[in-house]
Amino acid sequence: MARTRTPVVAGWFTSGDGDGGSDEEAAGRSFRLLGTRCTACSSVFFPREDTACRNPGCRGGDLVEVPLSKSGRVWSYTDGRYRPPAPYVSDPAVEWWPYTLVAVELAEERMVVLGQAAPGVTVADLAVGTEVEVVPGILNEDERTVWTTWWWRPVGTR
Q1: Nearest-CA neighbor of 105 among 134, 78, 85?
Q2: Cβ of 143: how many Cβ atoms within 10 Å?
Q3: pLDDT at 2
Q4: Are 69 and 105 a contacting pair, CB within 8 Å?
Q5: Those residues with Cβ within 8 angstroms of residue 126's Cβ, 6 or more apart along the chain or in another chain
Q6: Mind listing the pLDDT tens digit for each residue in 75-119?
Q7: SS3 content of the chain, % helix, strand, coil (to 5)
Q8: Which of 14, 22, 60, 61 is the most exposed place for a label (fewest CB within 10 A)?
Q9: Which residues, at least 6 apart from 56, have a Cβ–Cβ distance to it below 8 Å?
Q10: Chain-wide mean pLDDT for the chain?
């Protein structure tokens, strides 16, 4: 039985398979975070905003979906040494490992986006200013569903 791939939060990122490629590398090339841009003031939001412009100096305009930059630079990072709360799944019976959190500055959008580093990327692999790219990730899986998310990975690593 095939498992369903389901985004952990719908509308926050592409599936990565829009270019017709089915291999992991092709999916990674087309994977993007999705934000929204106000047509009146050009402010960009992530997580996306679908109701009204959050810029307090804007009288508002239509909000349009925009793909965010594929890469950015590490603004800050840390390691998480505790079991994360929901919606992250953490079975107390299963061995747990620390994870790395990365705050990435997207220069074009002039914003910082937080996310988890790809498996195997530790704080020892990062420094402020390191170039990283967004890649598809798996938050959790069970017999029916693969819950997808995004990860940050240093550019040039696999």
Answers
A1: 134
A2: 6
A3: 83
A4: no
A5: 74, 77, 100, 102, 117, 132, 154
A6: 999 998 888 777 776 777 878 888 899 999 999 999 999 999 999
A7: 5, 40, 55
A8: 22
A9: none
A10: 88
- Amino acid occupying residue 126: L
Establish how many alpha carbons lie within 13 A of residue 103's alpha carbon, considering only the half-sphere containing its beta carbon.
8
Amino acid at 125: D
58: nearest Cα among 42, 46, 36: 42
Helix, coil or strand: residue 104:
strand
Residue 19, both tokens: 């270019």
The length of the chain is: 158
To the nearest 10°, the Cα dihedral for 71, 52, 137, 85? 120
Q: What one-character-per-residue DSSP string does 17-77 give?
A: -TTS--SHHHHHHH--BEEEEETTT--EESS---SS---TT-----EEEEEPPSEEEEEEE
Q: pTM score, two decimals?
A: 0.83
Torsional class of 120: left (φ above 0), alpha (ψ -120 to 50), beta (otherwise): left
| Burial class for 93, CB neighbours closer than 10 Å (0-12, 13-18, 19+) | exposed
Return the structure tokens found at 96. Answer: 């747990």
